[in-house]
Automatic annotation (TrEMBL):
The active site is at C113. One of its GO terms (biological process) is Mo-molybdopterin cofactor biosynthetic process. Transmembrane segments: none annotated. It comes from Pseudoalteromonas denitrificans DSM 6059. Mo-bis(molybdopterin guanine dinucleotide) binds at F254, A255, R256, E257, D258, R259. Belongs to the FdhD family. One of its GO terms (molecular function) is sulfur carrier activity. PANTHER family: FORMATE DEHYDROGENASE, SULFUR CARRIER PROTEIN FDHD. This is Sulfur carrier protein FdhD. It comes from the Bacteria. Pfam families: FdhD-NarQ.
Length: 272
């Protein structure tokens, strides 16, 4: 069945109860569906996600997972819907598909899934990754400007709540160039990474703001995308900080309009 475009929201009837009684009303909730990533006819991963910006999701996931290296490595995409969810039927070259089969993981991921499905700890430590060039940290005011605009750009979250967002921001002005939302923080970031590649008119030099914590996987995806700065609203984890230091990612957590906590500055390494 051809995919019918979703706006990411569903209307539900709910009952609101107070000490004075209860009443029914309708409200928006965020949509969540099973999204299957199928490469050259072989199912690779199933993620619980919000079914919007799926072309960006397909590209961003493929890039951040190292399945492909460049946008043009994704040769074709067909989106199909059935009673169980949505299939992203992705065509990649035989060369990339053979590599995928060699390191293939069977992945059934919830909306908070990152490294789930890896078969051993050794696979994590053996992952090949190119370090970023050391880059000066942005001025406080640049991040402050982006944070001031971040919440108002989260359209799905404003209407329904319960949604993560990732935004790509201009490194000179702090203006938000792109934003993507999803029930899962990893999904939102994958969608954003895909959107950056799909929008050739925007500057490729910028920084990412995420509404979530800075987990290992969020840092890993940011580095793989070649972005030098990650700003998160919540805390980082110890492994996220280690990875940021190793690959020269500028990492800021607990970001607020009036306060920013620097966990790694690539030009001035901070000890744990």
């Amino acid at each position: 069945m051809k995919y019918s475009v979703s706006n990411g929201l569903q209307i539900v009837t709910r009952s609101i109860r107070t000490s004075l009684g209860s009443e029914q009303s309708q409200d928006f909730v965020i949509e969540e569906q099973a999204i299957a990533f199928v490469y050259n006819g072989i199912s690779h991963a199933v993620m619980m996600a919000t079914p919007v910006d799926l072309a960006d999701f397909a590209l961003g996931f493929s890039l951040s997972e190292g399945i492909i290296n460049y946008k043009n490595d994704l040769l074709d995409l067909e989106i199909e819907e059935n009673e169980l969810g949505v299939e992203l039927n992705i065509t990649i070259s035989n060369r990339h598909f053979n590599v995928l089969k060699q390191k293939r993981r069977t992945l059934a991921g919830n909306s908070g899934c990152g490294l789930c499905g890896l078969e051993s700890l050794q696979q994590i430590s053996n992952k090949q990754q190119t370090s970023l060039a050391t880059t000066p940290l942005m001025n406080f005011s640049i991040i402050e400007t982006a944070l001031n605009k971040f919440r108002d750009k989260q359209i799905l979250n404003i209407q329904a709540g319960g949604v993560h967002a990732a935004a790509f921001c201009d490194i000179k002005t702090g203006n938000i160039l792109l934003i993507r939302e999803d029930v899962g923080r990893h999904n939102a970031l994958d969608k954003l990474i895909g959107a950056i590649q799909n929008n050739e008119s925007i500057p490729q030099s910028g920084f990412i703001i995420s509404s979530s914590r800075a987990s290992y996987e969020m840092v890993d995806k940011t580095i793989t995308a070649g972005v030098n700065h990650l700003v998160t609203i919540s805390a980082p984890t110890s492994k996220a900080i280690e990875l940021a230091k190793k690959h020269h990612l500028n990492l800021i957590g607990f970001a607020r309009e009036d306060r920013q906590v620097i966990y790694n500055e690539s030009e001035n390494h901070i000890s744990l």
